[in-house]
Amino acid sequence: MSKTRAAITGIDVFLPEYRLTNDELSTMVDTSDEWIMQRIGIKERRILKEEGKATAYMGTKAVEGLLKKTNTKPEEIELLIVATITPDMLFPATSNIIAYDTGLKNAWTYDLLAACSGFLFALQTGTAFIETGRYKKIIIVGADKMSSITDYEDRTTCPLFGDAGTAVLLESTTEDVGVIDHILHTDGSGGKFLYLKAGGSLHPASHETVERREHFVYQEGQPVFKFAVSRMADVSIEIMKRNNVSNDELAYLVPHQANMRIIEAVARRMGLIREKVMINIQRYGNTTAATIPLCLWEWGKELHKGDKLVLSAFGGGFTWGAIYLKWAYDPV
What's this model's pTM, rounded to 2 decimal places? Predict the structure, then answer.
């Protein structure tokens, strides 16, 4: 009997229209296009500036586009998982809002928080539900309004982040495609290097936390860089070895788009040529849970059924991991 697998059968994205360029950033903080390109590799990032719109709005737009693109009825979706660290509010969950706004009446929903590894964690969770045979159609959303927690007075972090919403349809299949293997990790000792201090139950919002600018991303660049490069490369190499996938057989590495230097260092450690690495950070910046599906969407016309891909990510917490999958469809 053929094994039941979960296959990605469609992707859609929502990108805000506003482009925040390096030249504009240089009028806000002491930086320049040259400095940002040399150290980070980002030319511009999309920012959701419209009043009253946030992560749920971007996720809703992505889901609406996905349903239309895949000719899927809202009532067919049985589960919605939203990976985000910028929910509209602590409750109700952003997934609840998206499901209501898109008419997913038969889906139960929840949010998943794993920072930049969130899409991988959500993808594997959805995969597990499908592999049980209980569900046939699941949507995974990766969406973040990172501009809402970015300190535009901090020259070291404000060039990094952008906003985007993505939605992926996962369907049951017995073909030799879909998610094959995963390796996912967490290490709480790294939390002191990359975190958002205030706004939770430990440091509730107050005049003092606002004045100390504790509601913005805090990052210590060097330890994060070293940890990200080693863990992303090691876990990607490990998953390829245990599935007997050589560099020649691999169609693409799909890395989280955190920093161009991290991506390049990971590729070097893996012995991959640049042409086998999906990179679009220069156009969108780090959109956290949205970066990997954003790459898959942008490279969609180049992917063919059976292509072997490794998705790899690293995020605050620390969280990291890799997923090996075979692409499920030809370009449409």
Answer: 0.95
